[in-house]
Please model this.
Amino acid sequence: MPKTIPEDSVGLVEPQTLHFAKPLPLVCGRTLPSYDLIIETYGELNESASNGILICHALSGHHHVAGYHSMDDRKPGWWDSAVGPGKPIDTDRFFVVALNNLGGCHGSTGPNSTNPETGELYGPDFPMVTAKDWVVSQARLADRLGIQCWAAVIGGSLGGMQAMQWAIDFPDRLKHSLVIAAAPKLSAQNIAFNEVARQAISKDPGFHQGRYREQETIPKRGLMLARMVGHITYLSDDSMADKFGRDLRKGKFSYDFDADFEVESYLRYQGETFSETFDANTYLLMTKALDYYDPAADYDDDLVAALSQATCQFLVVSFTTDWRFSPQRSREIVDALIAAGKSVNYAEIEAAQGHDAFLIPIPRYMEIFNAYMDRVSSSVEKSEEVTNAS
Amino acid sequence: MPKTIPEDSVGLVEPQTLHFAKPLPLVCGRTLPSYDLIIETYGELNESASNGILICHALSGHHHVAGYHSMDDRKPGWWDSAVGPGKPIDTDRFFVVALNNLGGCHGSTGPNSTNPETGELYGPDFPMVTAKDWVVSQARLADRLGIQCWAAVIGGSLGGMQAMQWAIDFPDRLKHSLVIAAAPKLSAQNIAFNEVARQAISKDPGFHQGRYREQETIPKRGLMLARMVGHITYLSDDSMADKFGRDLRKGKFSYDFDADFEVESYLRYQGETFSETFDANTYLLMTKALDYYDPAADYDDDLVAALSQATCQFLVVSFTTDWRFSPQRSREIVDALIAAGKSVNYAEIEAAQGHDAFLIPIPRYMEIFNAYMDRVSSSVEKSEEVTNAS
Model:
């Protein structure tokens, strides 16, 4: 519990839910008849509506990016380290918008919502959603908020993939795209880990073909396993060595199947906590959106052609020990951007923490992030001048 | 089915089961009252019993290393690429011994054996076995076969760990130790993946606290998941990219939870096949033996002190894309051997195949393996001369 809220926090925040009545045709061929998006906003939109920043979330993320929902919250939003007064995404300068994506389980329309056409829970019938669909839904959200052009769209991991998709699909609606710890598409190994997670969930007897809510149960074991596997891929071998090494829970081996090592009980705890808070159908959907992500596919598998659509400027950031989306994968994006003649800054940050490093305020990362956001801020001021002059 | 058995094969082979009536005290504090070891041997033991080679197996391995059990076998033993006439472990020169380790599920005493003290299946009550215990049981096997000193003890992965343990625990009973694709102990990440496998198996409702045989079922889903995770760690990101990339099974996305990508159906198949042939309690035991492996622990965590016990010569081999036990882990062994003043040859093999590379006849690997085994053969000849002279 934060006895006092830190000065560089956005403070107490409240989510709001927006209803969209216009049907949304999806890449999979189906259509969402209507939907809700739950969002949080921090800071003030300026008169010219040119200081809007969209934050896109990763696999298990949501709209609660910064600040606290109540004075009793143990922890702030998931990217509080980067969002707040004086932080890289400076809420004194920017109007920050974060949402829970369609298919999510934190308040936007998803598998736990009622299908208006049947009056029943969607459950496993919720349509497959892709990063392209999310970007369209986010563009409609921008319309609703009166934002014609984002100063920047920003995201890490799957969030970075959405920032890249924005640049391709809506080139005139963002000035900057910040693609952090991402990849142009998943590798076979990435897909393989996702498939393990999906099998763990869908083969759990508690899954009931996705109709677990009707059975008043959840596929708890499957979700736990999915998260344990996922969690290993978010950390680096080095960071796990630093954090746990071969430390024993009781100082000696049990010679039974209790958790002997600290790392075992840590993973069990992470998995159990997650399994109690995250929806299984959503997890399946999010991993599929990752697998399907491939913006080059619409351009004859030519990433350069895909990124040639973009008119914004780019910051691409990777982390040395990230083995989920290694620096090599970010360099593929950078190379394609350069080949497409785009403006791109690239930073490869020395960091022990693996994929999770994108959430951690590592000094060089924050310096670069700050410096780049100053540039974003300048382009806001310029567009304000243009607006004032016109 | 091999219509004709290749000339460089050991041909048709037959396992034999040896009974050991003398109780075996184990590191865990319990004692096996008696036990069987199933073995295969290839080649002829020479008069001085100096040409014996022991092959130790990895997590899911067994005694069937080379050749065929019947003309109908689709595949030969698991290391047929390295064992046979004219191959590195040349059965024209060496007497090769391979066994299934205690706790195994291929014929040696393990969870599926009857506990002679109760007349019931051991099941989950089978005692925890460690690499140190295996080495003791293998020394007794050597006694039974009349082999005082192995020309070499050889293994990959967990097998290589046993070869290292041999050099420490029975220094005067081997001339050479070949430690391939191994590590001096598991990292936190290694243990974490093992823990995912164990949770998958033990949380499967079909596990019944390890008493699944009495229930006439098996924890099939859990074993399948365990193998899927394991399999990913045996391959490299590169080799998965080469083998599968993002190839689709049906040329387009299903937008449902069918296997869209080739890599998904490959993993499902690997997992299912394994779940039908491997015992769950054995899998749990083998992963624990890996986690517990730490020969330095008996020497104040000083690997140099541990390896100072050794009097044999060493070949250590690693593979560039092995991320389960990376070259760095082999270099830790090599550095400790050098610090201990031992004779060690080290080869880091350029290979795309990840951890599994140790099973693949990669030209440079085979050249080095052959050259080193020539040296082993020379030491056999020398000891024969000594025997003849005496």
Chain B has ten helices and ten strands. Chain B touches chain A through 54 residues (CB under 8 Å). The longest helix of chain B spans residues 363-389.
